[in-house]
Structures are given as structure tokens and as C-alpha cells.
Amino acid sequence: MEDAVKNVKEAITGHLELLAEMNKFPPEAKALDYWVKDEEYSGWAWALVEIDVEPYLGKSTKFNVTLPDLLSKKIDDQVKASPGLYKNRSHFLQVAALHELQNGIQK
């Protein structure tokens, strides 16, 4: 199983590298429940792999953002309440922007 997980990580990172070269975003992750309910994968063994997609999004650019106080506070509260999900406010905004660009009307 260890080799299978290692091979999966290598395949995913290779795919992410190709997407980056084509200036495309990585696909948004789906919950495990989504896949477990899919009959095509019924009876298969499951493993989760964690891959940070940030390196495949290109160089970071620093810029100032002006937000209303309440929105800024809500973002900070969410970051504090979700330490495993968001590294900081910038990471929260990055995740939110990526989600909107992947699922927004400009597909």
C-alpha cells in the first residue's frame, strides 16, 4: 500500500506540473464521500494523500487589499478556528479566490 500511495503522489504531482505549464488551475478537491458513493469505485480500497497545490500556482505576488472591518474580522476568526485548513489570512483569501475562479461563471 505504501508504494501505491507513493505512486499516486507522483502521478498527481506530475499532473499538477502539466496543468501549471498549460496555465490551468488544479481541480478542486472533492470530499471522500463523493467518491465512496460513486458505484464505479465500489469495493475499492481507499487512501488519502495530501498534496499542497500552492507550488503549482506560480510565484506569489504581494499586494494590498482593502476590506470592511467586519469581513476582515470574520476571515481572521475563520482562520483561527481552522488551523489545519488555513495557514493565515492570505492563505484563506487564496483558497477563496481559487474556489471562485474554479467554480465561477468564467469557466
Automatic annotation (TrEMBL):
Occurrences of domain HicB-like antitoxin of toxin-antitoxin system (ranges): 1-97
Annotated Pfam families: HicB_lk_antitox
Native organism taxonomy: Bacteria, Pseudomonadati, Pseudomonadota, Gammaproteobacteria, Enterobacterales
Protein name: HicB-like antitoxin of toxin-antitoxin system domain-containing protein
Domain of life: Bacteria
CDD domains registered for this protein in UniProt: RHH_NikR_HicB-like
